Amino acid sequence: MRDRAALLALSAALTLPGLGAASLWDVDEGVNAQAAREMREADSWVVPTFNYELRTAKPVLLYWLQRASYAALGVSEWSARLPSAAAGCLAVLLVYGLARRMFGRATGLLAGVALASAPQFAVLARAATPDATLLFFTALTYLAFWAGHRGGGRGWWLPTAAACGLAVLTKGPVGVALPGAVIALYFAWNRELGRLLDRRAAAAGLVFLLVAGPWYALVAVETRGEWVRAFVGTENLNRFLSPMEGHRGPVWFYPAAVLGMFAPWSVFLVPAVWYGVKGARRAPAPSVLGTQHPSHITQPDPVPADVRAHRFLLCWAGVYLAFFSAAATKLPNYVFPLYPALAVLTARFLVRWREGAVAVPRWVMPAAAAGVLLVGVGVAGGLLYADRVFPGVGAFALLGLVPVLGAGVMAWRLRRGDRGGVVAAAAAAAVLLVGAAAAAVPVLDRQKAPRDLVRESGAGDPGRDVRVAALGWFQPSVVFYTGREVERLPTAEAAARFLAVPTPGYLFVPAAVWERLAAAVPGPHRVAARHFDFLKNCDVVVVTNAP
Fold first, then answer.
1. Is the pTM of this model over 0.90?
2. Where do the domains of the chain lie, and which CATH numbers do they carry?
3. pLDDT for 245 beyond 80
4. First vs last C-alpha separation in the chain
5. What's the CA gap between 280 and 260, in Å, rounded?
6. For strand 526-533 and strand 538-544, is the pairing parallel, antiparallel, or unpaired?
C-alpha cells in the first residue's frame, strides 16, 4: 500500500500542478473539450459533435469522462484535462502491479517512476485527449491477462475482454486488435497457441460485445451508419494506408520518437532490450511458476516465470512498434501504449544490474551517463532554439542543468562502485526535469491566440446574442472559448455579408487577409483584438460590427 501511495503521490505531483493554467492546445484538445461540452448541452450520451456537426474521429468514452468532470467541476481547461490526469496516475499503479507480479517489488517501483517521469507521459497525462485513457485500459488489459494466465490458468478471458471493450470505446479497433496480436504472438512464442482454443473465448467475445457493442450500435442507428462508415473507413483504414493531415514519416520515425520522449530513461533502452531478449531466450527448464510469489502458484510450467515475462514485454513492445511503423500516418502519441513495456524492461535491467545479477560491458553504464549528459545539452539547446518562436522560453534552458548534474552524480557514484546511487541519480534527474519543465508552459501559452482573442474581443460573452465566423484561419478551441458555433466562411464576399448583418458578429481572420479586405467591407466595423498565433505563424485579428 505504501508503494502505491508513493507512486500515486509522485504521478499526481508531476501531473496535476498547473493542469488548467494553459489554454487548450489545438487541434485535438480544442476538439475533444468542445465535443464533450456539446454532448452535455444536448444531453446526449450517444452522438458526438464538434462545432455542432457530427464528429467521427474518435469513439465516445473520453467525452463521457469529460462530461462527468464538467458536471462536477464546471467547464474549464482543468476539468477537460482531469480525466487524462486521473487515467495517467492510475496507469502508473497498474504498471507497478504488473511489474511487481513479473519481477518483484523493486522492479515495480522503478517501472512506475520511469513511466511517470517520461516526457511523453507528462505531456499526454496533461492533455484533453484519449491517449492517457487508452494507456490505462491497455495496462488494465495486460495486467488482467498476466494475472489470469499464469500456470495454465484460464481466468484471464473475461476481464481481459472487458478491458479491451473499454479500450475500443476509447480509441477504436486498436484497443482489441493489438492486444489480441500481442497475446497470440506470446502464446506462439511459448508454443501454446492451443490455449486460444478455449470455450471461454465465446464468453469473452460476449463480454466484449456487451461492453463496447451497445454504444457502437446506438451511434450507427442514430446517424444511419454515417458515423461508423466514416470512423472505420476514414479514421482507421485510410489513416493506416495513407498519410493524413501531412503526418507522414520514415520507418525509423517511432524509434526516434521514443528516444526523445522516453528520455532520459531511453539511454538505458539498448541494454534493457538486449538483456530482455537474452532473458526471453533462456533455455526452458522445468520449474514452478511463481516461485518468488507463492500466492500465484497453480501448476508446474515448463517455461520459467522470468522468461515468460520477458517474452511478453517484448511481444507487447514489438507488436505496437511494428504496427504503427507500417501505418502511413504517423504521430508520436500513437505508440504511447508501448511505454509501460519499455518502463518495465528498463526497470528490470537496472534492478538486476544494481543487484549484480547481470554483467554488462564496462563501457555501458559510462555511456548511459554520457547519454544523460547529452539529454541535458539537448534540452538546453532545444529551448534556446525554441526562443525564436516562443520568446522567453530560452530562459528555461537552465533546465538542461538537471540532467547534466544527474549525469555528473551518475559518473561519480559509478566510479565509487555505488550502483544504487547511479540508478537513484538517473531517476532523480528524470523526475526533477519533468517536474520543473511544467514551469515553462505559461511562456509557451503566450503565443497561442484563441483564448486571448476571445477574451479581448468579447466574442465569448454569454450574456449577448452574437454570431462568430472565421475566414482563412480556424482553430477548434475558438469554438470552446466562444461557446458558440463558428461559421467557416469560404470567401471575402461571404465575410462582407457576415459583417453587414445587423446582429453583432465577430470575424476571426489573419491580419494580412483583413488588410486586403477591409476597404471592400461596407458598414461600420472595427478590430476588437489582435494576437500572434504560432501554429499558423501569423497575426490574427477579430473584426466586429458591434459598437
1. yes
2. 2-360 (no CATH), 361-447 (no CATH), 450-544 (3.40.190)
3. no
4. 62
5. 26
6. antiparallel
